[in-house]
Amino acid sequence: MEHALALFGSFDGNIKIVEDAFSVTIVARGTEVKISGDPENVYLASKTVEGLLTLIDKGEAITDQRVHYVIGLVREGTSDQLSSLASDVVCITAKGKPLKAKTLGQKKYVDAMKNNTITFGIGPAGTGKTYLAVAMAVRAFRAKEVNRIILTRPAVEAGEKLGFLPGDLQNKVDPYLRPLYDALFDMLGPENFQRYQEKGNIEVAPLAYMRGRTLDDSFIILDEAQNTTPEQMKMFLTRLGFNSKAVITGDITQIDLPDTKRSGLVEASKVLKHVDDISIVYFTEKDVVRHRLVQAIIKAYEKYYDERRRRD
């Protein structure tokens, strides 16, 4: 019965999504579920229900976003891979919540970070690129695989000019680095974060301050890498020292550099795609784990730009 309650959701909301997606009728009689409609649609709906039950077995909460994701996998014929999801806890947050990959793209990304020295995570907003990278950094730090976590991003404004900000250097760069702080607060809690930062175990700094350094025994994350120039990207990648890992994240559809500047992330993804021990993982709108509307927005923009390119 617990499985049935989790599957159907509040006011049968989850099952209604499946019914609408495949034009079928789903009725529960005790612990039995009957699906009726067109044979092919019934098959797809049953595969969706099986996929959702796989996630429930692994202790995953079923939200409408999860239901839509499983429906997408069933339509593609890749729902059999669901059993690999939610099997591995990436990190335990400060509140004791286990953090797991929520999509197959995220699972591929986590595995790439485990198995490679340098990992690129490229894809749209809301796919968990930064959050999962910070989680892997905290995991490595807690396991004493590294001595330091270094988080950096280029100080490029997203269209707005922040002007002269008050305070010392840290106060001036903090607005650029806020998403990294938010992720660290979630993983470690504000008190632990403060303590590790004072001891030098955690460093959050703009990319310009990486020049001339060699970073040993560190887990280094470069966020918003689409806003690096090719020179900055090469400078960052050559900071890597012994027993270190680097993760570079970015969204090549949101470049805030002046039009005349090339993106270092775009160039690096072409230059390094065949280099051993470097993995490049691409996310799609299906990996978005924010509000479902974010997926629709990304799709709409992609369609608009594709049509504009064709016209041009």
UniProtKB/TrEMBL annotation:
Q: One cellular component GO annotation, for this chain's record? A: cytosol
Question: What family classification does the UniProt entry report for this protein?
Answer: Belongs to the PhoH family.
Give the organism, scientific name. Answer: uncultured Anaerotruncus sp
Listed A to Z, the keywords are: ATP-binding, Cytoplasm, Nucleotide-binding
Taxonomic lineage per UniProt? Bacteria, Bacillati, Bacillota, Clostridia, Eubacteriales
Q: Which GO terms describe its molecular function?
A: ATP binding
Q: Where is the PhoH-like protein domain?
A: 99-302
The name under which this protein is listed is: PhoH-like protein
The cellular location(s) given in this protein's UniProt record come to: Cytoplasm
